Amino acid sequence: MPDNAPRPADARLTTELDIELRRLEAAPDRRDSAHRMVALAASVAATGGLLFGYDTGIIASALIYITHSFALDSTGQQGIAAALNLGAVFGAIMSGPLSDRLGRRPSVMVAALVFTLASLGCALAPSQTMLILARFVLGWAIGATTQIVPVYVAELAPAERRGGLVSLFQLVFSLGLLVAFAVGYALAGPPECWRLMFGLGVIPALFLALGMVFLPESPRWLLEQGRTAQAVQVLYRLRGHHEPIRQELDALREAQDQASDTPGWSALRTSWLRPALIAAIGLAALSQLSGPNVIVYYAPIILSEAGLGHSAALLTSVGVGVTSTITTFMGIMLIDRVGRRRMLLAMLPFAALALFALGTLLAGTAPLEGMRLVFVVLALLAYIFFNFGSLSVAVWLVASEVFPLIIRSKAMGLASATVWLSDTLVSLFTLTLVHDLGRSGTFWLFGAINALAFFFVLRWVPETKNTTLEEIENSLRNGTFRP
Question: Contact 115/141 with Cβ under 8 angstroms?
Fold first, then answer.
């Protein structure tokens, strides 16, 4: 058989696709309803981000009271915070093969069920050990969600809307943080209030599980499984007209014709995939090593130790939640217009400057009061604005875009695991850094990492706006992916 001749499976796929597309030519134009369907699917799936944000953020408020309930030292505090992150590393890696086998949609539902059970486990934990175990299981569900949801939405969304729709995950994450900080502030007081704080996570978990029942499977996953007719029908629900479906499927078939025969994880060792791997994994690590969760996890404790009262410190966290939500919403509105790379390069220098200013303001041992307190809060919120509006918005989006279909789920799992492993390092060592370097030195260090992130983006991260997933794959294959 000549090298360029289609393989039997390819020929059968081509024939089935052509038959299904001819059937659609007489179907009515439903692009308006398809537009709404894509938005609905992205919104429901993004509820996983709400769970991610809530369970990440609630520890900042709950930890103050857990410390008294279980007489924790700094090691115990860091252990409870880090248990979720360690679980998320395993969840991210394990969920890639799971979503390849079961499908994106059922895998999200499994993660939502684990969310529900683990949230109850945290609320009812009788000891520090059981709380750490429940937080670990909760982390598994969060890690799985951060892998599956961005891939699912990226595979559903048209190229011109993909940035905003995938970034809904980060917006809802910010909303989850805001809800967590508001709940923490509202429930603060009784010694065991942290149990209700954790237990309320059951509500969005059940909403996610039920909502996914009514959503379609990823059409790209269906095609990969040979379920051609179902894939075309799902695409019709998502595009509403045969012309964009034909264009999309032609590009997908071309990518499949060029697909590597290298199976599983070993595909990531191929040289043509290396630029995507560097860009996605580098952004994943820097998104956490740049320090956003230092503020999320430990700002109340750090500010309390600097002289701010518990109530005022928790109220500052509410301000962090509001700021992160506003800036993430702005990022979603702009990312498909401005572009991923340009937003990162424009905002990261200001994130670094805000942390350098915060470190300078926290120098010395004088208690926070007067205008110094005002400037500390402003610098903290400015950092959240510029970091969440750049790295935090782009990290899940870029990782879900740059990998080809043959390895997308597993590679996204690796990127997600990198996020959580980096976050684990931050959560484990932040209080130790504060002890060894002081508050000022710690924030100066994170400011330097934000500056490093700017130069990484400049060198390694290309622009992917208004580009189909298959066009991105072709750029990898022909060596034009780099900036």
Answer: yes
**Residue boundaries of the structural domains of the chain:** 10-477
Closest C-alpha to 107, from 119, 96, 118, 117: 96
Per-residue pLDDT of 302-318, as tens digits, reads: 666 655 655 566 666 67
Helix (H/G/I), strand (E/B), else coil: 172:
helix
Q: Give Cβ neighbours of residue 236 (< 8 Å, ≥ 6 apart).
A: 24, 27, 30, 34, 242, 245
Q: Which value, to the nearest 10 degrees, does the dihedral of the CA atoms of residues 230, 233, 237, 243 take?
A: 140
Residues in the chain where the model's pLDDT stays below 50: 1-12
Cβ-contact 83, 202 below 8 angstroms: no
**Do 81 and 301 form a contact (C-beta atoms < 8 A)?**
no
Tell me the CA distances in angstroms from 365 to 357, 430, 439, one per residue in order: 16, 19, 10
Looking at domain 10-477, its CATH class is mainly alpha
Angle at which helices 274-289 and 408-460 pack, to 10 degrees? 80
End-to-end CA distance of the chain: 39
Q: Nearest 10 degrees: CA dihedral of 120, 287, 81, 153? A: 10
Q: Is 207 exposed, middle or buried (0-12, 13-18, 19+ CB in 10 A)?
A: middle
The first and second tokens of residue 205, run together, are 């978990």
Distance CA 351, CA 354 (A): 5
Residue 264 DSSP label: G
Q: Alpha helices, DSSP H only, in 125-257?
A: 128-156, 162-187, 193-199, 202-212, 219-224, 228-239, 242-257
The CA distance from 465 to 23, in Å, is: 32
- Minimal CA–CA distance to 35: which of 258, 257, 236, 174? 236
CA 305: distance to chain centroid? 31
Structure tokens at 218: 């990823």
d(CA 58, CA 118): 14
Look up residue 178 and give its amino acid: L
Per-residue confidence (pLDDT) for residue 477, from 0 to 100: 85
Is the distance from CB of 84 to CB of 59 less than 8 angstroms?
Answer: yes
Residues 6+ apart with CB under 8 A from 95: 107, 111, 143, 144, 147, 148, 413
Q: Please report the pLDDT score of residue 123 as a whole number.
A: 93
The DSSP code for 217 is P
Tokens of 169: 């995950």
**Looking at residue 460, what is its pLDDT?**
93
